[in-house]
């Protein structure tokens, strides 16, 4: 069972957040994280972003995906409006960094992001957001406004004990390098790449 292993306030470029590490035991070197803005009002629907780790995009500013940009926008939004980012250790839609780089190598040969995963014998998306729901329950969140374009994340919340109040879209600018990736997200995964707030 997940537990809060440690927490502390951390100042960032976007302001201060409460950073909370969740793991089954304290020796886990890759705990899931929640970062909580100080002005979060838990008696109202809480703005929440489920964000899966992407070392290439977030740390090294890869242009192949928009994860870094999404994380930055979510941090800024949540700092201004209150809320929580649940940061999940699900690198490469949970195939890990080694497989992700193997998939990128296949993409250099012309396969798209889904085809490359399937060629490696891996699922197109191996993520499960139950752990994010578990974290929200530990934090005592009852109702959320989910910052996402991903219908799969909406589905996990709808099927949980947490109320989905509305979706807040995260619109990203595509680059020459990320265009085909965003197209697959839209066509294959059904991502909602518009900029309208959807009341659910
Ligand atoms: Zn990424």
Explain this structure to me?
- With 200 residues, the protein is α/β, with parallel strands linked by helices.
- The chain has a domain at 3-90 and 129-178: Rossmann fold (3-Layer(aba) Sandwich), CATH 3.40.50.10990.
- 34% of the residues lie in helices and 25% in strands.
- It has eight helices and eight strands; from the N terminus they run E-E-E-E-H-H-E-H-H-H-H-E-H-E-H-E.
- An eight-stranded mixed beta sheet has the order 1-2-3-5-4-6-7-8, sandwiched between helices.
- It starts with a strand and ends with a strand.
- The mean pLDDT is 90.
- Zinc ion (ZN) binds at residues 54, 57, 65, 67.
User: What name does the CATH topology of the domain at 3-90 and 129-178 carry?
Assistant: Rossmann fold
Number of beta strands? 8
CATH class call of the domain at 3-90 and 129-178: Alpha Beta
- Strand order within the widest beta sheet: 1-2-3-5-4-6-7-8
- Write down the Rg: 17 Å
Question: What's the rounded overall pLDDT mean?
Answer: 90
Task: Record the SSE blueprint.
Elements: E1 3-12, E2 15-23, E3 32-37, E4 46-52, H1 55-58, H2 67-81, E5 84-88, H3 91-94, H4 97-108, H5 113-119, H6 130-138, E6 143-147, H7 151-158, E7 163-168, H8 179-187, E8 198-199
Parallel strand pairs: 4-5, 4-6, 6-7
Antiparallel strand pairs: 1-2, 2-3, 3-5, 7-8
Bound molecules: zinc ion.
